[in-house]
Amino acid sequence: MRMRHWIAPRQRSTRFGRTNTEATMSQNDQQTPRERIEAATFWYSKAREELRARMLAVQDQIRAITEKQRPELIALVDQAANAKAELVALIESNRDVFKKPKTIQWHGVKVGLQKGKGRVEWNGSEDDIIARIEKTLDKASAKQLIDVKKKLKKDDLRDMPADVLAKLGVEVKDVGDAVVVKATDDAVDRLIKGLATDSVLGDDLAERAL
């Protein structure tokens, strides 16, 4: 039994403008495998074109809806940002509430105090510290602390033992408890981040932290 296959592109019915009466399935013994592959490639290309056109149309609709809702979205984002600022200030002025436990979860939000990251400082220039790291530590450890451009990596330095930091002339300051306000559900944050990448709302949302 011969396999049935699509006939040449000029005869095939599609969603791209041809009528159903032009559609037909036929045993086409005259088509070579190369021609059948070319025909299948043609229809794949047309399917991608239709998908792209629909995606662009959807993006335009989303952009129009976003533009229409822009004032209310900005107002609500500001409302949430202001509420967070007030909450942080309230926690800051009432640290005794969080002696034990340090954090409490209320209404889907973790609030309280957590160990601050601290500021990384050093004596001398950055080049001096890089030279000390390369001289004091093994190659693997030094690579972990220094960027390819030979720039100190403060986050990794912060995690080094105090005695090693002392040898390097580095000090981590302000390591006290810092206020933490973190929603356990980050769905809203992800939505805001997505909107911030859009040209319509990007400038308005880029600096707002929730």
TrEMBL record:
GO terms for biological process: DNA protection. It comes from the Bacteria. One of its GO terms (molecular function) is double-stranded DNA binding. InterPro entries: Host-nuc_inhib_Gam. Residues 1-15 have a biased composition (Basic residues). Residues 16-31 have a biased composition (Polar residues). Residues 1-32 are annotated as: Disordered. This is Host-nuclease inhibitor protein Gam. It comes from Ahniella affigens.
